[in-house]
Design goal:
five-stranded antiparallel β-sheet; 11 strands
């Protein structure tokens, strides 16, 4: 059961010891998620992977990890997010590659260079807002923008792909444990606009 509390969706049974991970993320729109999913199937066949592909509804770009679920952290994170004023922006990914991971579980991802510059800028803005609310320790600067397609059994070399583009017009706070629960979301709006917080 979920409840609305101070503009935040919280699990009544959740606590700091409930496990899982709490993080901010940007999401592909429905069309982009479908295209990414189709591409993932094609790449799985090309590389002869056996592992399951991440479903379209769970595709995302992680922005900041905030630790385990905590009502206090959620509240502070939401206050910081509500202060962010950035207009929607376009991003694109144009390569596939393997990241290092556990043996037999290598993240197979999409990455980009110039196509994610504005995403980097947006993340810096969000990081400043988090630091201003006392979460500087969580606003880490290391960032490798990517969309994970699957956790493959082995690594493969980087390859170019037909760019997949979409406009980022919102970001979300996710609790990931046995699936993804969107606790809150915010529309991107330019400076001078009203509050961007939505449920």
């Amino acid at each position: 059961m979920f409840m609305v509390r101070s503009n935040v969706l919280m699990d009544q049974n959740a606590s700091s010891s409930s496990g899982g991970r709490l993080f901010f993320a940007a999401l592909p729109d429905t069309d982009a998620a479908t295209r990414i999913y189709r591409l993932a199937h094609a790449l799985k066949r090309a590389h002869r992977f056996d592992r399951a592909i991440i479903e379209p509804r769970r595709l995302h770009i992680s922005l900041f990890f905030l630790g385990e679920l905590s009502e206090q952290i959620v509240q502070i994170a939401c206050e910081a997010a509500a202060e962010v004023r950035v207009p929607p922006f376009e991003i694109w990914f144009d390569r596939s590659v393997s990241f290092r991971g556990r043996p037999g579980s290598r993240p197979f991802v999409l990455i980009g260079d110039d196509g994610v510059d504005r995403l980097r800028s947006f993340r810096r803005t969000l990081g400043v807002a988090l630091a201003g609310k006392g979460l500087k320790r969580l606003a880490k600067r290391d960032f490798a923008p990517h969309v994970t397609l699957m956790y493959a059994e082995r690594e493969v070399e980087e390859r170019p792909i037909e760019p997949i583009r979409w406009t980022v017009n919102k970001f979300v706070l996710i609790h990931s444990m046995r699936g993804h629960v969107h606790l809150a979301r915010w529309q991107l709006r330019p400076c001078g606009s009203g509050s961007s917080g939505l449920l």
